[in-house]
Amino acid sequence: MMNLFARMAQSMRDVHENRGILLALIRRNTAGRYKSTYVGFIWHMLFPLLTIAVLTITFTYIRPRPLEDFWIYLAAGMFPVTFISNSLRGNAITRGAQYITKMKFPREIVVIASVLTDFLGVIFAYMFIIMIIMLSGQYVNWIGFIILPIELLLMLLFSIGCSMAISTVTVFVKDVGYFMNVFMRLVIWITPTFFLASEAQGLLGTIVWWNPFTYYVETFHDLLYYGIFPHVEYLAMSLILTTSALIIGAWVFFHYEKKLPEVL
Amino acid sequence: MTEIDGMPAPADDDVVIRVKGMKKSYTILDPNQKKSRLGFVKRIQYPVFDNIDLEVRRGDIVGILGRNGCGKSTFLKMISGIIEPDEGTIEVKGKVASILELSMGFHNDMSGRDNIILRSELYGIPRDKIMEHLERAIEYSDLGVFIDNPVRTYSSGMRSRLAFSVMINVDADIFLVDEALSTGDMAFAQKASEHLKSLVRTGKTVLFTSHSMNTIKRTCNRAVWISDRTIKMDGPADEIVDEYSRSINESFEETLHLANDGSSSAQYRLATFYRDGIGVEKDPAEMRRWLEQAALRDHPMALNDLANIVMSEGKEEEALVLFQRAAEAGNFEARRKYASLQSDVLEDIKGLRELMKGFCDSGYPYDYYNYGNLMYRSAITTGDYKEALEYLEKAAEIGWSDADVLIAQMYRDANGVERDLEKCIRHLKRAAENGHNKAMYMLGDLYMDGKFMKKDPEEAFKWYMMSALVGNSRSQYQVASMLDSGIGTEKDVEQAKKWFGIYSNSILNDSRKSAMETLKARKGDFDVSNYLLKAMSRTYQPQSMTRLATKYEQGKGFKKSLKGAFDLQSKAALAGGGPRVRLADMIVEHSETKENTQESFDLIRSAVEYGDASAMYRMALFYKDGIFVEPNVDEYRRYMRMAAECGNRDAKTRVTEWDIRAERRRKRTDHGNDSEDDKDSGKDSDLNDPVQ
Fold first, then answer.
1. What value of ipTM does the predicted structure carry?
2. CB spacing of B82 vs A104 below 8 angstroms
3. Which domains does chain B carry?
């Protein structure tokens, strides 16, 4: 166990030292993705904004819910859920195979870059949501807003841990990747995004709290939709989940990383 | 293994890469296990490297050779630290830059410029430094106006140029380059190779793999050949490359591999393996199959060989098509055969063959040789080759060295016989010992280029030296350069200078001086008179025969002998147009009777059929002056134009003159200007031209 922590500390130093490569990979994933479009990188911000617009239109006019500002509830939950589920699809390493097999650098950078790229989307989305909330003059819990970056960071680390574990396993057993893809669809539906956690009845009411996503999402709901200081048990649970995901992810990744260039 | 011969043991500081007892194996699926119902297959360990030791010193530029899948790339990956060894150690001193794949990290939608920045960042170059050197990199890439276009619009050559331009900014002590020089055009490969060389000059170390043996030869000072999980050879680049290419050419498995990949030359080589039983049982059916495969890809020699086989099966029409394709693909032998089969020349050659065979009754070796040579050069069926070989051997037995050389060529190139280097060398040696110059340098070449057999520079030098001593300028140059660089002999710059001097005299064609130098240089291995005699006897080419016949005719240097001259010239006349004209002249000159002049005319007419321009010119003059024939203006003009087309200068002058006159006449008629001149040129003034 001590070895693992030492390795993780070493890894942090390595990543910091090679932050140039990390940034280059993120830049390649973001700027490169929209390069042949007219507005380019702006798409990366436009995308969340348009998604928010679609959600608002859908649940205000097409399929209205009798809840006030339901779109905030939706958007606050939708982006984190999509983000976490993306990191659990297990394709981070296989997508970065060309770097791992051809370059000598801290291999975890590939995973981190992949997760961070998606994370940027969440950040932009939240920026818009907060901006709209503030512009519309709604009630804001300012103490809660100190919690928000911490919770976002916890979610980021949780995703990195998950991605490290799942994408490593996917390299060796491809089936895991496919399974996770399908499984994530189910998980999205048992996470309180389209329904309120308090509405969940019967079986769903139990499962919802077995789902790790729920604790992150509910924290965000508390902060952005309800505008209250988040439930402490949600925060505590997020912390526990993040720590375990990181430990498991790091263990799996560092245990198998040397085999990666041979298997990829 | 790791020591390069002749190098002083260097200080330990100089070793920048030290690989010790490295072992590595990959996990692969057990090839002997059937898949179970669930698709689980037992995995086994497959060794990639077994106990590799290697030391690379600072300033080395090392080429890594080996067939596909031998682990070249894995080897570089292990040195760069991407893959770790199972056992043993790899110590690397200094920063390593691995350029293992050119297209790595390119983003298709980003511009060339952005990709240079991105790639540089991936190589860990700080941003400010990238921007500082960006223009230099762009200039190096030579992409010009395309640099701001998306990479997806680039050709593969442009991509590799772009990729390599990133490399010039990479700062490291050791560069590992995988297949980077194989793409792009020749000029760029050259530029890249120069860059690697310049890196080495500034104290860096380079290791690279390439499929191009020339690149390795040109760029590297050292080469490592990986085969069978270990370093098979390690040493100076050109030696290792030679050994490697020889083994590739001779290895049945390797050739089969390439042939299956669709390389027509490998398919042809494979066919010869099946034909000659190299590395495999002889198998005519397999040989035929691979020949057909190679022929499908228009391999000229395969087409030709296949045509020969089809021909010997009696399918003449099919063979003709194949010969035609081979001829179009550039095979000279096929061109000749196609031409022969196409026209009546074959009949002519048949006549010629019978005639020459008749000469063989004399029992003279040169008659045997001439007939054998004719059969060989005009051979169409395998039977022809056999007959050629039989007569050449007869001539060789009696001591006609040209025959030995020709036989050796047949054995070397597997022309009509199975390849047999032992026989080839035996014949060459016999000819060389008889003072045959060509045989000497052919032996030198055989030992030197290592294409057919193991390279042996000492032996090569011995033969080149002999050939140089008897005055062959090419060998003189070879001897000089071998002395100069100490290959196959002690290095001796003074001697080398002397030989370079002799060589330059030889090529200046200052025959007397070079003969004197040659005589000075000779060490008494060869008797002068013997040498001269043998040299004079090598007159089988029509030109030399003609020259010798002239000497006999005029009694220059020889006892005057009209009979000898006629004999030689008649033989020369069998071979072509020019000598026939000369023979015709000789007949006219030395005879008074009418019949003989008629013979002379026939000779010239037949020379015309051989396409001899001077014969055409002569025919034209005959028609003009009414010699042998009735004067005929049309025939005169026809022959003159024909001669001009075939390149006779006199005829050309005359035809041009006609054309100019005709042009002038046309212009005048156009202007309606009927002058005195014009009337004059109405009749053919050419008939009044004096014969030049």
1. 0.80
2. yes
3. 59-232 (3.40.50.300), 368-536 (1.25.40.10), 542-665 (1.25.40.10)
